[in-house]
Specification:
This protein is 11% helix and 25% strand. It is of the alpha/beta class. It has a domain of 166 residues: Ribonuclease Inhibitor (Leucine-rich repeat, LRR (right-handed beta-alpha superhelix), Alpha-Beta Horseshoe), CATH 3.80.10. It is elongated, with a radius of gyration of 24 Å.
Length: 306
């Protein structure tokens, strides 16, 4: 069986790598990480400024952070290349960064589908791929047990949004999937006990208000505007006692507002404009001492300014 060109290139890279570190005291990053970065670079349409392939010390390259485990076998723990005008696809080889904790490729021109294995990093805490042109659907199972910050907003993801992040991670604090094209959603967020920020706006999501959100007691900001949610708002929303900002505007919610705002003592901003809400304004909403911004325009509520 012949050796593929890719395999041969990796073998030559390994041999050269060993020769270099044996002949000098130059610090060097782990060979597997170096190979992963080379594969990542090969899938781009142009070179990355500040990356020097004549050096094996990738830890000194732009956007790369390494640990201090050793002098010649440092592991890459951060790849931060946001807003670098990079274009291309993400190659499967990037999953070779086994110890990476921060992966930020936001505000670039990446396109195509994201490799499924990219959602299986054991140590990843921050994943930011926002403001690109990624397409396709997200995997049903996202196994990121250490994830805290998850941002895939402003891309072109479509199909069913089946989010089960908290089945494998109880540490996540920030989820942003705004401005994609999911359309339908199946959210399993009841185990997200550390979740503080949720942005699902601008997706055309339909159905009732996701009731498992009522169980996330530390939730501070919830943006569901510009979707197609419908039905009444449940009294369970009063369980979100730490909520500071709630935006459900530009949906199809109907019925009356639940009289629970007395329990939302930290709520500063409430936007529910452009729905089909009816009835009297709740006394607790009118008398709320914490609210500074209230937008109820384009409804049929008695006592609300149009």
């Amino acid at each position: 069986m012949g050796i593929s060109k890719v395999s041969l290139a990796f073998i030559l890279l390994a041999v050269t790598f060993r020769q270099r570190i044996q002949g000098s005291q130059e610090p060097a990053c782990n060979l597997k990480d170096l190979t992963a970065l080379k594969g990542f670079s090969n899938c781009l349409g142009s070179d990355i400024g500040g990356w020097n392939w004549n050096s094996f010390n990738c830890c000194s390259w732009t956007g790369i952070t390494c640990d201090n485990s050793s002098f010649v076998n440092k592991r890459v723990v951060g790849l931060e290349l946001g807003n670098k005008r990079l274009a291309g696809t993400i190659c499967e080889t990037l999953v070779g960064l086994e110890q990476v904790r921060i992966l930020n490729l936001s505000h670039n021109f990446f396109h195509g589908k994201i490799p499924t294995n990219l959602f299986r990093f054991q140590n990843l805490e921050v994943l930011d791929l926002s403001n690109n042109d990624f397409v396709g659907s997200l995997p049903v199972v996202i196994h990121l047990p250490s994830i805290k910050y998850f941002d895939l907003s402003k891309n072109h993801f479509s199909s069913l949004l089946s989010l089960e992040l908290c089945k494998t991670s109880s540490h996540i604090q920030y989820i942003n999937l705004a401005n994609n094209f999911f359309g339908e959603a199946s959210l399993y967020l009841e185990n997200c006990t550390s979740l503080h920020y949720v942005y699902l706006n601008g997706n055309g999501l339909s159905g009732a208000f996701p009731q498992n959100l009522y169980r996330i007691q530390y939730l501070r900001i919830l943006h569901l505007q510009e979707n197609r949610f419908s039905g009444p708002l449940h009294y369970g929303i009063g369980n979100l006692s730490n909520l500071v900002e709630l935006d459900i505007s530009s949906n199809g919610f109907n019925g009356s507002l639940p009289d629970v705002f007395g329990r939302l003592r930290k709520l500063d901003s409430f936007s529910a404009g452009s729905n089909s809400l009816t009835g009297l304004l709740p006394i607790s909403l009118v008398n709320s001492p914490s609210l500074s911004i209230v937008d109820l325009r384009n409804n049929s509520l008695d006592g609300a300014s149009s």
